Known about the structure:
90% of the residues lie in helices and 0% in strands. By secondary structure, the protein is mostly helical.
Amino acid sequence: MDSIWAWLPQTLLQHHWLDSLRYFMQQGGQVLWWLAAVVAVCWVLIIERIAFLWLQFPRQRKSYTQVWHQRSEHDSWYARSIRDSWLSQAHESLFQHLNMIKLLVAICPMLGLLGTVTGMISVFDVMANQGSSDPKLMASGISLATLPTMGGMVAALTGMFAHSRLVKACQSREIKLEKSLRSRR
């Protein structure tokens, strides 16, 4: 087991992936770092939701259904109020953080657009200061303009996919819970 942990850092250093990532982020400018922070927060929330759906919610659902089926009566106002309260609690716990994920996904293309604008400002600044349109001088500004745009679009597309899958999964689990609490046994 120790040999695996000793081998892993060597492998990571041999491929220089960290240097490549650092170079990519430098080429994209400051906006790309902001975008990376937004994407990191978004994916932390997505992973948290996936863990909740697979690990915690099944126990919560089982608890609700067991207590419901142990009840002697299901038709009184009091029983229906308890069931509705559980459904409301389940809805809140299922859909927690989904609006924040949606907001972060919506911010990604806007940050990419901000990167485009700042990159183009850099290109125009070079043109104004140098008095020419030398492609070598404008290349870094164009890189500043295109990399954040691409990063924002990729982040938004993957985030939209993850968000929509999470919403569907939450809706499905909510419906299953409601059906199990409506049945008598």
